[in-house]
Amino acid sequence: MSSTAMCLKVLAGANALGSPAGRMAIWVLLFQDLAAVGLLLMHDSATGTAEGRGVATMIGGAAALVALLFIARGPLQALARWTATQRDPELAQLLALAIAFGSAIAATSVGLSPALAAFAAGMIIGEGDARHVVEKEIRPFRDLFVGVFFIGIGVQLPLGLIPDVWPAVLIWLAILIIGKALIVILLGMLFGEEAQVMRRAGMILGHGGEFGLMLVSVSLSSGLISDMVAGPILLAIGISMPIGSILVRRAARSGAGVD
Fold it and tell me: PANTHER family this protein is in (predicted)?
């Protein structure tokens, strides 16, 4: 999965969000983010089965949690609108943090991933009229938590394994950069998109991202995959991200005067 945060920031800086390649990349990024929710649910189901809870129980708990969040959709959005009218930055920050942490705690109580509930709660708030106000006020927290997330992942990277697993790292790196780009190009051309646009979109999406790091990390923590499997993947994703930022910038600049 590619890095939505990095791609959007670089594309916005190059004024390429509205280009054909930029729009195509954004569609794929949004689909990947939604797919991450399903993968988190699959992870929770797998770990729940290992702990004796069963797949049906986990899926039922997830469905109940999502249903509860969507039932609360109206009140939450109304509360967000009221908060926006108060023009109190601290109140907006408190509301956003309370919703995020509250939904995460609720998910944990039924054995689900906190990220799953926080993602759903964010989607609900993002659909409301006050989303711009809330987004503006929580931007410092977003940047802070993104930094904390990447630092946390960075300290988990098994750098000591590089001398032993570097062939596997190179293979995964090739899959992430070259393989993903080729898949994007071929699928786009299959659906009638221009080859030049898809080449740029492939360059934009040819790397790993934060959701990939998170999924591998939680799978490693829960014991679904071993250190020898997760290590090369984490290293490859970590290496691909700075390479990906260069590719995104080049793709955005190359299409600026053409698209």
Answer: SODIUM/HYDROGEN EXCHANGER FAMILY/TRKA DOMAIN PROTEIN, SODIUM_GLUTAMATE SYMPORTER
